[in-house]
Design goal:
Layout (H helix, E strand, L loop, with lengths): L5 H19 L9 H8 L3 H4 L6 H11 L5 H10 L5 H20 L2 H12 L4 H7 L4 H22 L9 H24 L8 H16 L2
């Protein structure tokens, strides 16, 4: 019996993800079962569980493998470290989130991620365990945290003059972003990629946030 190396395990897991991708071209995510993947991969029922504990783990790995690494984080960091005016930096950071969602929609991982968002929309237990593992969710969390920190620093330095409580501004931005992401997810699941004009919506959000922060 051949020695089971890390490379061997990685190859098997990669093959399972490849089979998953082929299945997702044939049927929507919510109809896919572990049995479908087992059949496509040609593995026994027991063997596949040596590599993935469940279907959720397969989805997370498949989505993350097909999601660009640190794309939003790099854009946010570049903007925040620029010498541009604070209001312009803040506006561009917000718009960058919209650009990221639009870019993600073009990828296989992004479309599958949005399908998964809809599939688990009302399963709060799975949302709590699965979503934090997704690169997409981690990227959005990073961007929103950095933007909130930037706003707070701007208020402390006197650059920004909030017209409403800062907490309300941050909650408004977070709710808006989550709402747009959910609308995109719903539209993607229904096969309607044009449901929301993401670019215009995030430009509108940027103007609203700036409006809350200036005299």
């Amino acid at each position: 019996m051949p020695k089971v190396t890390d490379e061997y395990i990685a190859d098997k897991k990669s093959y399972i993800l490849k089979c998953t991708g082929e299945i997702l071209k044939e049927k929507p995510l919510y109809l896919v079962t572990m049995r479908d993947i087992i059949k496509k991969a040609g593995f026994s029922h027991g063997i596949i569980y040596h590599y993935y504990a469940n279907l959720d783990e397969i989805y997370v790995n498949y989505i993350n493998k097909n999601t660009p690494d640190n794309l939003l984080e790099l854009n946010i960091d570049t903007l925040l470290n620029s010498e541009r005016a604070e209001k312009e930096v803040l506006s561009e950071c917000i718009v960058a989130i919209g650009d990221y969602i639009e870019e993600l929609l073009k990828s296989i991982g992004g479309k599958t991620c949005f399908e998964l968002t809809v599939f688990y929309a009302y399963d709060f237990e799975k949302r709590a365990t699965v979503f934090p593992k997704l690169k997409y969710k981690q990227s959005l969390e990073y961007a929103q945290t950095k933007i909130a920190e930037y706003i707070l620093a701007g208020v402390e330095s006197g650059v920004f003059h909030p017209q409403i409580p800062i907490r309300s501004i941050i909650l408004f931005a977070s709710s808006f972003i989550d709402g747009i992401a959910q609308s995109v997810a719903t539209g993607t699941a229904e096969g309607d990629d044009g449901l929301v004009d993401i670019s215009i919506m995030f430009q509108t959000l940027a103007k609203a946030i700036i409006g809350f922060l200036v005299d």
